């Protein structure tokens, strides 16, 4: 719209240019009367002034009924300051004239009053060129008498005599000023620029006479004066200006109209004046009198109020004042409308004047110009006088005239006026919406930012609904006025006007204001785009402005842009304004203001200083710009010396902008932050920007470092607390622990962050955070600790350094619960780069769980387990056992016993008051009890274990092992050996080759058939052990000296390898407060015993002993230990066995009484039942003890589990019968020499006594003689060598228990030699009931012998 | 011819900005940013002004002494802003329109890239090349 | 034409994959998976398809676009009937919906129909989302191969 080249008509002195555009201007101003309201004197507090000012400015609209009775709306604009330069433009646009002045002052003394008056007057002088009337509101005086009454009256009185002057100036002005104007106009036309003088002339000229006659009426004047004041006041109280004006309605003539008040006023003053004289003579000082004297003073109407509260009638007074202004204006208007001048004066804008000097005013164009301009001014006045429709008519005429004479400037003004008039009618509400004061924008940024563009717009919209002043309904107006511009025309005219203005450099301000007015209209029309165009035009208008003005300008633009909803643009200009405040060329940079302005720009850039907010809509911003603004904030706050703020902003910059910062930027911003925070750290508390209530929220580094996950750690195994009662519960829920249900529930618990384990009060607890370092450098996080709620928790700070790499790095935060109950972990606090922040999980975006809940149980004791095995040293050499579970490792040789002491060390602060120890192992109970032993009582006795105290349990460990270790290998080797080495006399068995039943088996055993039998016997569930023992008899007889060597060869292959016994010692204990809460702890010691083989019984057999009630258990013992051992196999006998050597020992034992057999053997259906019984019998009797190794470690072995094959049973079991053999009457005991002589009869008597517990069935007794040739052959065919007398074969009767059967026979030898007689008896074949024997030794051919065989040496006579 | 080409996302945050070298980058950023006000206004004004040709090309948004700012919006609320030198008067409105069309095509191609998540910054060599050709005016 | 069939088959495969193949999913899970596929497709698709058309005046305008241009491009036919209550509910009737047209009419497949509509619901939602209309799209079949899609626009 702006013409590219701006035509400059003139180059005027700068003083005439209006330098202060009013950015809150608005079309309605054209319609208003401008009143200046000033605070005068030093006493008045600005607050009470502000209050009064607000009250005053509320009286913005007065209705006056004009001479022809129709209501006239009168609008007023109140201003606190108004530059005179602008006032000078009053001719150009009359609404720029200051028509009235109201001063407000507080007086405490005469001098106050004086300088108030002085100031008031000087103001009047300043604006005298345009001023119509003025008021002086004086607080601190009350109308009715106070000590100040006299003084208080003085001004009023002082004014009173002159009030005629006052009247002339104030009430008569219509006429007078009219003259003044006209005369002065003449002067102007005459070319003199001095108008004021003219006015003064008229005034002064008329002062004199009034002064004189005032003196004459002094006496009653005084009382009237008093009255007058009263009347004045209560008259005002009683009726508002409305009534006042109506009272005046009747008279159409100005002078008459004013007369009543006139008289009142002038009568009052002069009397007052009189008293003033007297009072002065009495009290008042000369100076005060003088101060009252200046004639200009008399024109002022003063209003007295004790305080602003008492000023009840101030509104009505104002209305009165306004209407007075109105009347003056009205009269002027009327004059102008009526006067027809042959030589109309040329009105001009201040800067124009020079241009017209010397121009021929009589030229047609100039005449037209003058007329046009006059018409335009009339239009202005008409508009102000509340007649927009008429104004429009005037304007349009003026416009035509001016257009013809190319008077662009005034044409533009004309258009503007036209628009104004139309706007007044179309958009009466517009005036409401310019509520925002010029500097309102400098207030708190937040509140303004708060209302978005839409808000603003809607605000404007909302205004429309407001009730209008009566009689101003736009609709009606529209109907009535045909000339009124349409909305679009208004804009076009404005545009045109602006184009014209733009041709004049000096009209910049006017142009600016015109544009702003247009914008207001457009906002009202909701045509924001076009409004934006006008605004951007404003930007182009170049005015020479002070920095301060520039700032104001940009702010104004920002506000306007804000109103049209262009927040970005608004922020842009706000920022420009901010930068202006601290521009380098700016002499006194105002960082504070800059900062406040910058704060306001944030909203436009979608920056919210609350990181949480920001994260939500952070995506909407423009990172590059955001970064810059933030940096500027940082810089500014630093220049302000607000280090805390500065740090906070930098922190925010780093935190919020992180995603948009490049590696290098991250580095440098971080460095910057560190250097700043070094000066003033930033805590997690919000900051308040002083003198604006703006709150800068805390910046918490939720994303530096990024916390990926939180892992609450369960206590260490040993420290876990268990519900004591829940023990059984757990047992039966055991199988379901992994059932979908429980897992499901546990999952849901997870979801709520509920931990399924407990923490223990007083214990160190851990939480692991997985942190990620977004920075390209090593990140140092100091004083990092957990934030918790609920149960008391002492969290420990820790410092971590995160490596500059992607991916989470685990960090452990520790703490110690101080009390039992529910503990909530809600987040963690950290200090990064000097910024300490509290990071709540619930704020961390990707954290699903807002907090973790852990149950803390009250304190429990904790014991550490120390173990020591007694013989490797005393407690001195204790081995501390790792906390969670003790480990005790022993290696013993089989059969060895060791006692080791387990020491329970209470390293907690709680006493252990309860303890229970249990052994758990995979071993079967019996073995377990055999291996491990300890005394429960002993422990219980030691309770309670005080903190720091110890208790010890002694654990006896016996390296039990299976000492019976036969192996097939050996059998095979024996097999072969027995074949080669034929039969030798049994080395052990004393006496000849007693034909043991086993013997027969041996005899056969060496045959193939035997072997097959064995194999199938072995097939028939014969354990290899029994197999070996079956033949051990023969082997014993065939044992070669090389046997040891042989065993060595087979040693490694044999079963003598070690084994390990394992058991865990479960120690449950509790105490302290935890005990009351039924919690306990458990720890355990795992005891591992490596058993190295020591002694092995590789083979065994039973041989008859010399004594019938005994037998020998023959053992082949192998020492597979690494040391030689000293073996005690019977209490008396002992033998040394080299390591790896094996030897054979006979152990005499008592044979097993039949009774035990009959008792225990009943179950046996096969011989094996018996064999185990016998085995036990043997085991119970045999105990092998030894010492071995350097320190003579003792060991013992038992033969538990040994069994014997049926063949040997008879040997082990007691025989059921007792032999009693006599030769020639003398008893034969084993081994006694018997002699006989050839041919002579020897009497042999055999007695058989039933020693078994039961009656014996008949037995067949047999006596068999034979000769042993000592070469393995026995000769039973002795018919030729001897004979017997009596039966050698007979059957005994049934023998009752203990009953004896005797049989005697004779032996006769024919040749000398050694004879042997074998005495056997076996169950009689005839006997039917063999069940008894079956019972004893079934499945086997029984025979009991008298051993050793009877031996008789026969000699020749 | 163009001194700045920018693609702006639904939420008015830049997805891609190209600034001619030798230009004061940040200033152009500000121009593009403030242009969004106008774009928003124009788009929202669609319903009100009946005579509006509902073209994706929004025409001249505003002009400063040295630059002209043109706008274009897709139906999916993606905005394109092209800033040209005010001095360059040879540039005709139609050419600008064509530039925007090409830009739009390029953008849709980017969106078709399976590895591009809509709403994220555009980092595509292809796109860079395209813009390069665009501003070079060939 | 080939590429149409192509689209049909791919869609079929997608459905069968989601319901049979891969990990076993609950019915609704699978449906929502398909719906999401549709959403992503629509979101990108509309970017391209609306390139030539002018700016849409308002919601209804957009809906018309969906019924006409989009449907024709994707399903080679227009929506047969568009209804709205002018309070953000739009109902699109398709009397012969492409994905259902190859099924035997009658009750037997009625229960499976939803599987073949999920993708399209997503597609529509995706398009609208990208066009700035956040909404919920549901579909229902009463009589194969006709079906109707209900669009519930989320205000605010």
Automatic annotation (TrEMBL), chain A:
<dbReference type="Pfam" id="PF26283">
    <property type="entry name" value="Ig_TRAPPC9-Trs120_4th"/>
</dbReference>
<feature type="domain" description="Trs120/TRAPPC9 N-terminal">
    <location>
        <begin position="257"/>
        <end position="428"/>
    </location>
</feature>
<feature type="compositionally biased region" description="Polar residues">
    <location>
        <begin position="234"/>
        <end position="248"/>
    </location>
</feature>
<keyword id="KW-0333">Golgi apparatus</keyword>
<protein>
    <recommendedName>
        <fullName>Trafficking protein particle complex subunit 9</fullName>
    </recommendedName>
</protein>
<dbReference type="Pfam" id="PF26251">
    <property type="entry name" value="TPR_TRAPPC9-Trs120"/>
</dbReference>
<feature type="compositionally biased region" description="Low complexity">
    <location>
        <begin position="274"/>
        <end position="294"/>
    </location>
</feature>
<feature type="region of interest" description="Disordered">
    <location>
        <begin position="148"/>
        <end position="294"/>
    </location>
</feature>
<dbReference type="InterPro" id="IPR058563">
    <property type="entry name" value="Trs120_TRAPPC9_N"/>
</dbReference>
<dbReference type="InterPro" id="IPR058564">
    <property type="entry name" value="TPR_TRAPPC9_Trs120"/>
</dbReference>
<comment type="similarity">
    <text>Belongs to the NIBP family.</text>
</comment>
<feature type="compositionally biased region" description="Basic and acidic residues">
    <location>
        <begin position="205"/>
        <end position="216"/>
    </location>
</feature>
<feature type="compositionally biased region" description="Polar residues">
    <location>
        <begin position="153"/>
        <end position="162"/>
    </location>
</feature>
<feature type="compositionally biased region" description="Low complexity">
    <location>
        <begin position="1017"/>
        <end position="1050"/>
    </location>
</feature>
<feature type="domain" description="Trs120/TRAPPC9 fourth Ig-like">
    <location>
        <begin position="1217"/>
        <end position="1354"/>
    </location>
</feature>
UniProtKB/TrEMBL annotation, chain B:
<comment type="similarity">
    <text>Belongs to the TRAPP small subunits family. Sedlin subfamily.</text>
</comment>
<dbReference type="InterPro" id="IPR044760">
    <property type="entry name" value="TRAPPC2L"/>
</dbReference>
<keyword id="KW-0813">Transport</keyword>
<dbReference type="Pfam" id="PF04628">
    <property type="entry name" value="Sedlin_N"/>
</dbReference>
<dbReference type="GO" id="GO:0048471">
    <property type="term" value="C:perinuclear region of cytoplasm"/>
</dbReference>
<protein>
    <recommendedName>
        <fullName>Trafficking protein particle complex subunit 2-like protein</fullName>
    </recommendedName>
</protein>
<dbReference type="InterPro" id="IPR011012">
    <property type="entry name" value="Longin-like_dom_sf"/>
</dbReference>
<dbReference type="InterPro" id="IPR006722">
    <property type="entry name" value="Sedlin"/>
</dbReference>
<dbReference type="GO" id="GO:0006888">
    <property type="term" value="P:endoplasmic reticulum to Golgi vesicle-mediated transport"/>
</dbReference>
<keyword id="KW-0931">ER-Golgi transport</keyword>
TrEMBL record, chain C:
<comment type="similarity">
    <text>Belongs to the TRAPP small subunits family. BET3 subfamily.</text>
</comment>
<comment type="function">
    <text>Component of a transport protein particle (TRAPP) complex that may function in specific stages of inter-organelle traffic. Specifically involved in the early development of neural circuitry, likely by controlling the frequency and amplitude of intracellular calcium transients implicated in the regulation of neuron differentiation and survival.</text>
</comment>
<dbReference type="GO" id="GO:0005801">
    <property type="term" value="C:cis-Golgi network"/>
</dbReference>
<dbReference type="GO" id="GO:0005802">
    <property type="term" value="C:trans-Golgi network"/>
</dbReference>
<dbReference type="GO" id="GO:0005783">
    <property type="term" value="C:endoplasmic reticulum"/>
</dbReference>
<dbReference type="InterPro" id="IPR037992">
    <property type="entry name" value="TRAPPC6/Trs33"/>
</dbReference>
<dbReference type="InterPro" id="IPR007194">
    <property type="entry name" value="TRAPP_component"/>
</dbReference>
<keyword id="KW-0333">Golgi apparatus</keyword>
<protein>
    <recommendedName>
        <fullName>Trafficking protein particle complex subunit 6B</fullName>
    </recommendedName>
</protein>
<dbReference type="Pfam" id="PF04051">
    <property type="entry name" value="TRAPP"/>
</dbReference>
<dbReference type="GO" id="GO:0006888">
    <property type="term" value="P:endoplasmic reticulum to Golgi vesicle-mediated transport"/>
</dbReference>
<dbReference type="GO" id="GO:0030008">
    <property type="term" value="C:TRAPP complex"/>
</dbReference>
<keyword id="KW-0256">Endoplasmic reticulum</keyword>
<dbReference type="GO" id="GO:0007399">
    <property type="term" value="P:nervous system development"/>
</dbReference>
<dbReference type="InterPro" id="IPR024096">
    <property type="entry name" value="NO_sig/Golgi_transp_ligand-bd"/>
</dbReference>
